[in-house]
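Section 4.2 – Deliverable D4.2 (structural model, holo form)

The reporting period included a commitment to supply a predicted holo structure for the target in complex with calcium ion. Inputs used:
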Amino acid sequence: MPKKNKISFYGKHLPKAGLTSLLLNKGAATHFITYESHFVGSAAITQIVKWSSVAVAGLGTYDAVSGATQITQIAPSSGSSTVPAKAGELLNLVYQITGAPHRARSWAVIGELPEGLNHLNSTNSNTDGITGTPTQPGNYTIRVRAYKGSNNNGYNYTKTFTIEVAPGSEPPIISTQPSNVTMTSVNEASLQVGVSGNGMKYQWYKGESGNTSNPVPGANNDSLKVEELKADSNYWVQISNDSGTVNSQTAKIKIVDNYASWAEQQLGNNPELSAPEKDNDGDGLTNEFEYLIGSSPVEQSLDSDTEILIEGSKIELSFMTKAAEGDGYAGLERVYSIEESNDISKDSWKGVPEFQNIIGNGQKISLSKPINDAKKYYRLKVNIREKS
Ligand SMILES: [Ca+2]
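Output (structure tokens):
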């Protein structure tokens, strides 16, 4: 049979209204939608337009199949016995019987359709279809049967299709939030976010979650390396895909230095120089001692600010404190305590009330006590600790 115009050829055999007109009409998209509205809601306009062009184009492949009677898928996957679909997206499955000497008077679908799909149940049409929006992913095998007679009677022909419903797109879901980290100013940390979903894009930001004013340049994957931080810092990540956007919690990076990070910054990585017991500048103070009192480990330190005087019946003791600040002291504070003893034996030292754990910030501390005993010893304890 000559088929110069495939479209019009099939048109002769099909009823004018509804789905089949959509299939065979090459008119404008709005025209397709008018007819398609018999079967699907107007919400699915974009899918309908997309589908319509696929269906019309698909007729070419379909048309090449001739001879024996058969039922063939026209759309969405022309000629195939499997039907691709996606949960949450409109499916228009169209199939047609060819080679049969008579028009199909009725159709049946045998087997369970995926939830959300309906059989169009054409009558007096060689074309039939299944339409709707599937909700549950999975593979569904059905049989489609065309009958010569009405009400599913008479000679019939059957075709099996597998409708493969893929999972729908989901917005990203964070399974693991980036963790808070405590580290020194010479360490580096890697923040990591665990996400499930497809087609994700990442952007890390400095600051509190939701504040997008400080994006980290080039930080576009699921981890972020941070290093050389001199102060506490916050980071968070925004993850998005076609279906939505989600913000992680804020990961707080706390910087707390210690002797090792102080020594690395003051003396470098050479253990010969940076060991706590070394005295590189030869001032009689070990590196560790210089770290504690806040003096330089590379320049000889002279203590000119400590005074002890006896004035009349009182002892006057004064000294200048130093704040824990500068390289190696991030997150730390220096605290001073005065202790006294009558005989300097090991267990005799007692804290002088009101002179305990004074946080150094450059202030002068003065102690004045009446001399009642024959002998009195004083000592100053200096500690470095994490900021309270
Ligand atoms: Ca020294």
